[in-house]
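Thread: quick sanity check before group meeting

JM: Hey all, I'm pulling together slides for Thursday and realized we never actually wrote out the predicted structure for the chain we discussed last week. Dropping the sequence here so it's in one place. If anyone has concerns about the input, flag it before I start.
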Amino acid sequence: MIKFGVSGFEFRCSLMALVGYLVLLGLLCSLGFWQLDRAEQKQVLVTQQLQATVSEALDLNSQTAIDVDLLRYRSALLNGHYDNQHQILVDNQILDGKAGYFVLTPFRPDSGQPAVLVNRGWVALGVSREVMPDIAINAPVQQIKGRINHFPLPGMVLKGSEIPGESWPVRVQVIDNTLLAAKLGYALANYQIELDATQTEGYQRRWQIAVAIPPEKHRAYAVQWFGLALTLTALFIWISSRKKHRG
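JM (edit): ok, ran it. Output follows.
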Protein backbone atom coordinates (compact mmCIF):
# COMPACT_ATOMS: atom_id res chain seq x y z
CA MET A 1 0.00 0.00 0.00
CA ILE A 2 1.31 3.46 -0.93
CA LYS A 3 0.37 6.33 1.39
CA PHE A 4 1.31 10.03 1.50
CA GLY A 5 -0.31 13.28 2.59
CA VAL A 6 -0.73 16.62 0.84
CA SER A 7 -2.49 19.75 2.19
CA GLY A 8 -4.72 17.97 4.66
CA PHE A 9 -5.50 15.04 2.39
CA GLU A 10 -4.19 11.51 2.54
CA PHE A 11 -3.69 9.48 -0.60
CA ARG A 12 -3.84 5.70 -0.45
CA CYS A 13 -3.55 3.23 -3.29
CA SER A 14 -2.07 -0.15 -3.98
CA LEU A 15 1.03 -0.52 -6.10
CA MET A 16 -1.01 -2.43 -8.69
CA ALA A 17 -3.59 0.40 -8.89
CA LEU A 18 -0.85 3.01 -9.35
CA VAL A 19 0.87 0.97 -12.07
CA GLY A 20 -2.47 0.41 -13.83
CA TYR A 21 -3.24 4.14 -13.70
CA LEU A 22 0.17 5.10 -15.08
CA VAL A 23 -0.06 2.55 -17.91
CA LEU A 24 -3.53 3.77 -18.93
CA LEU A 25 -2.47 7.40 -18.63
CA GLY A 26 0.56 6.77 -20.85
CA LEU A 27 -1.57 4.95 -23.41
CA LEU A 28 -4.21 7.71 -23.58
CA CYS A 29 -1.61 10.46 -23.86
CA SER A 30 0.32 8.57 -26.56
CA LEU A 31 -2.88 8.19 -28.57
CA GLY A 32 -3.53 11.91 -28.22
CA PHE A 33 -0.03 12.85 -29.42
CA TRP A 34 -0.33 10.32 -32.27
CA GLN A 35 -3.51 12.02 -33.44
CA LEU A 36 -1.80 15.43 -33.29
CA ASP A 37 1.04 14.02 -35.39
CA ARG A 38 -1.46 12.64 -37.91
CA ALA A 39 -3.17 16.04 -38.02
CA GLU A 40 0.16 17.69 -38.84
CA GLN A 41 0.85 15.16 -41.62
CA LYS A 42 -2.62 15.67 -43.10
CA GLN A 43 -2.21 19.46 -42.94
CA VAL A 44 1.03 19.22 -44.90
CA LEU A 45 -0.70 16.98 -47.46
CA VAL A 46 -3.67 19.34 -47.83
CA THR A 47 -1.32 22.33 -48.23
CA GLN A 48 0.66 20.53 -50.93
CA GLN A 49 -2.54 19.57 -52.75
CA LEU A 50 -3.89 23.12 -52.60
CA GLN A 51 -0.60 24.45 -53.93
CA ALA A 52 -0.78 21.94 -56.79
CA THR A 53 -4.19 23.25 -57.84
CA VAL A 54 -2.85 26.80 -58.31
CA SER A 55 0.51 25.88 -59.84
CA GLU A 56 1.27 26.53 -63.50
CA ALA A 57 -0.05 23.84 -65.83
CA LEU A 58 2.45 21.04 -66.42
CA ASP A 59 3.31 20.26 -70.05
CA LEU A 60 2.95 16.48 -70.34
CA ASN A 61 4.00 16.39 -73.99
CA SER A 62 7.64 15.95 -73.01
CA GLN A 63 7.05 13.83 -69.89
CA THR A 64 7.78 10.12 -70.28
CA ALA A 65 6.71 9.15 -66.75
CA ILE A 66 5.32 11.03 -63.76
CA ASP A 67 4.93 10.42 -60.04
CA VAL A 68 1.17 10.53 -59.53
CA ASP A 69 1.42 11.00 -55.76
CA LEU A 70 3.84 13.91 -56.14
CA LEU A 71 1.86 15.63 -58.92
CA ARG A 72 -1.66 14.78 -57.74
CA TYR A 73 -4.12 17.63 -58.48
CA ARG A 74 -1.53 19.44 -60.63
CA SER A 75 -3.00 21.02 -63.73
CA ALA A 76 -1.60 19.57 -66.96
CA LEU A 77 -1.69 20.04 -70.74
CA LEU A 78 -1.44 17.31 -73.37
CA ASN A 79 -1.68 17.37 -77.16
CA GLY A 80 -3.22 14.52 -79.13
CA HIS A 81 -6.66 13.16 -79.91
CA TYR A 82 -9.46 11.20 -78.26
CA ASP A 83 -10.09 7.56 -79.09
CA ASN A 84 -13.82 8.11 -79.52
CA GLN A 85 -14.52 4.48 -80.39
CA HIS A 86 -13.25 3.02 -77.13
CA GLN A 87 -14.68 4.59 -74.00
CA ILE A 88 -15.11 3.45 -70.39
CA LEU A 89 -18.06 4.03 -68.06
CA VAL A 90 -17.16 3.84 -64.37
CA ASP A 91 -20.32 2.55 -62.70
CA ASN A 92 -21.97 3.37 -59.37
CA GLN A 93 -21.04 7.04 -59.21
CA ILE A 94 -23.51 9.12 -57.19
CA LEU A 95 -24.06 12.85 -57.71
CA ASP A 96 -26.80 14.79 -55.91
CA GLY A 97 -28.37 11.50 -54.88
CA LYS A 98 -28.60 10.24 -58.47
CA ALA A 99 -26.82 7.20 -59.89
CA GLY A 100 -24.61 7.60 -62.92
CA TYR A 101 -21.22 7.05 -64.50
CA PHE A 102 -17.87 8.74 -64.86
CA VAL A 103 -16.98 8.87 -68.56
CA LEU A 104 -13.31 8.03 -69.17
CA THR A 105 -12.03 8.39 -72.72
CA PRO A 106 -8.51 7.41 -73.87
CA PHE A 107 -6.49 10.38 -75.14
CA ARG A 108 -3.63 9.38 -77.42
CA PRO A 109 -0.70 11.84 -77.30
CA ASP A 110 0.90 13.04 -80.53
CA SER A 111 4.31 12.26 -78.99
CA GLY A 112 3.59 8.52 -78.93
CA GLN A 113 3.55 8.28 -75.13
CA PRO A 114 1.10 5.92 -73.40
CA ALA A 115 -2.49 7.05 -73.75
CA VAL A 116 -4.10 8.81 -70.78
CA LEU A 117 -7.65 8.19 -69.60
CA VAL A 118 -9.45 11.52 -69.47
CA ASN A 119 -12.32 11.72 -67.01
CA ARG A 120 -14.79 13.86 -68.92
CA GLY A 121 -17.21 14.05 -65.98
CA TRP A 122 -20.41 12.53 -64.68
CA VAL A 123 -23.49 11.49 -66.66
CA ALA A 124 -26.79 10.24 -65.26
CA LEU A 125 -27.76 6.58 -65.48
CA GLY A 126 -30.96 7.29 -67.39
CA VAL A 127 -34.19 5.32 -67.51
CA SER A 128 -32.53 1.91 -67.82
CA ARG A 129 -29.15 0.27 -67.29
CA GLU A 130 -29.66 -1.49 -70.60
CA VAL A 131 -29.48 1.83 -72.47
CA MET A 132 -26.02 3.39 -72.57
CA PRO A 133 -25.82 7.20 -72.40
CA ASP A 134 -24.75 9.10 -75.49
CA ILE A 135 -21.10 9.93 -74.81
CA ALA A 136 -19.96 10.59 -78.39
CA ILE A 137 -17.38 13.32 -78.99
CA ASN A 138 -18.92 15.73 -81.45
CA ALA A 139 -15.93 17.92 -82.34
CA PRO A 140 -12.21 17.17 -82.79
CA VAL A 141 -10.05 17.91 -79.75
CA GLN A 142 -6.33 18.48 -80.23
CA GLN A 143 -5.36 19.53 -76.71
CA ILE A 144 -6.76 18.78 -73.28
CA LYS A 145 -6.30 20.54 -69.98
CA GLY A 146 -7.14 18.98 -66.64
CA ARG A 147 -5.74 17.90 -63.32
CA ILE A 148 -3.75 14.76 -62.59
CA ASN A 149 -5.36 12.33 -60.18
CA HIS A 150 -5.63 8.67 -59.21
CA PHE A 151 -8.38 6.64 -60.82
CA PRO A 152 -11.79 6.85 -59.11
CA LEU A 153 -12.40 4.19 -56.48
CA PRO A 154 -15.77 2.86 -55.33
CA GLY A 155 -16.72 2.57 -51.68
CA MET A 156 -16.77 -1.23 -51.98
CA VAL A 157 -14.68 -3.26 -54.41
CA LEU A 158 -16.39 -6.42 -55.63
CA LYS A 159 -14.58 -9.35 -57.19
CA GLY A 160 -14.40 -9.02 -60.96
CA SER A 161 -15.53 -5.36 -60.92
CA GLU A 162 -12.38 -4.37 -62.82
CA ILE A 163 -12.97 -6.75 -65.76
CA PRO A 164 -14.22 -4.89 -68.86
CA GLY A 165 -17.07 -6.24 -70.94
CA GLU A 166 -16.94 -7.29 -74.57
CA SER A 167 -18.56 -4.36 -76.36
CA TRP A 168 -17.76 -0.65 -76.28
CA PRO A 169 -18.28 1.43 -74.28
CA VAL A 170 -17.22 -0.96 -71.53
CA ARG A 171 -18.71 -0.65 -68.08
CA VAL A 172 -16.55 -1.27 -64.98
CA GLN A 173 -16.56 -0.32 -61.32
CA VAL A 174 -12.79 -0.27 -60.87
CA ILE A 175 -10.20 0.98 -63.34
CA ASP A 176 -7.38 -1.49 -64.00
CA ASN A 177 -5.18 0.21 -66.59
CA THR A 178 -3.33 -3.06 -67.34
CA LEU A 179 -6.52 -4.93 -68.24
CA LEU A 180 -7.87 -1.98 -70.22
CA ALA A 181 -4.56 -1.57 -72.08
CA ALA A 182 -4.72 -5.23 -73.11
CA LYS A 183 -8.25 -4.75 -74.41
CA LEU A 184 -7.39 -1.50 -76.19
CA GLY A 185 -4.21 -2.83 -77.73
CA TYR A 186 -2.03 0.08 -76.63
CA ALA A 187 -0.35 1.28 -73.40
CA LEU A 188 -2.19 3.31 -70.78
CA ALA A 189 -0.73 5.63 -68.15
CA ASN A 190 -1.42 4.74 -64.51
CA TYR A 191 -3.37 7.92 -63.78
CA GLN A 192 -6.32 9.89 -65.07
CA ILE A 193 -6.72 13.51 -66.08
CA GLU A 194 -9.89 15.11 -64.77
CA LEU A 195 -11.05 17.42 -67.54
CA ASP A 196 -10.98 21.10 -66.68
CA ALA A 197 -14.35 22.85 -66.44
CA THR A 198 -13.33 25.21 -69.26
CA GLN A 199 -12.81 22.34 -71.72
CA THR A 200 -15.39 21.24 -74.28
CA GLU A 201 -16.76 17.72 -74.77
CA GLY A 202 -17.23 17.19 -71.04
CA TYR A 203 -20.07 16.53 -68.62
CA GLN A 204 -20.73 17.51 -65.01
CA ARG A 205 -17.39 18.12 -63.32
CA ARG A 206 -17.13 18.79 -59.58
CA TRP A 207 -13.58 17.81 -58.84
CA GLN A 208 -12.62 17.87 -55.18
CA ILE A 209 -9.56 17.27 -53.01
CA ALA A 210 -9.94 13.87 -51.37
CA VAL A 211 -8.75 13.55 -47.77
CA ALA A 212 -10.13 10.54 -45.92
CA ILE A 213 -9.86 12.20 -42.48
CA PRO A 214 -9.23 15.98 -42.43
CA PRO A 215 -6.70 17.51 -39.99
CA GLU A 216 -9.51 19.02 -37.90
CA LYS A 217 -10.97 15.60 -37.14
CA HIS A 218 -7.58 14.26 -36.03
CA ARG A 219 -7.27 17.23 -33.65
CA ALA A 220 -10.76 16.53 -32.31
CA TYR A 221 -9.75 12.91 -31.68
CA ALA A 222 -6.64 14.16 -29.85
CA VAL A 223 -8.78 16.35 -27.59
CA GLN A 224 -10.94 13.31 -26.78
CA TRP A 225 -7.92 11.18 -25.82
CA PHE A 226 -6.44 13.95 -23.65
CA GLY A 227 -9.88 14.50 -22.11
CA LEU A 228 -10.06 10.82 -21.18
CA ALA A 229 -6.58 11.05 -19.64
CA LEU A 230 -7.70 14.03 -17.56
CA THR A 231 -10.88 12.22 -16.49
CA LEU A 232 -8.89 9.14 -15.53
CA THR A 233 -6.54 11.28 -13.42
CA ALA A 234 -9.44 13.02 -11.67
CA LEU A 235 -11.11 9.68 -10.87
CA PHE A 236 -7.86 8.18 -9.61
CA ILE A 237 -7.27 11.13 -7.29
CA TRP A 238 -10.88 11.11 -6.06
CA ILE A 239 -10.87 7.38 -5.32
CA SER A 240 -7.42 7.40 -3.70
CA SER A 241 -7.77 10.53 -1.52
CA ARG A 242 -9.49 11.07 1.76
CA LYS A 243 -9.47 13.95 4.21
CA LYS A 244 -7.14 13.58 7.18
CA HIS A 245 -8.82 13.31 10.59
CA ARG A 246 -7.33 15.70 13.14
CA GLY A 247 -6.54 14.11 16.47
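AS: nice. The chain has two domains: 2-47+213-243, 74-195. The first strand starts at residue 2 and ends at 6.
JM: adding both to the slides.
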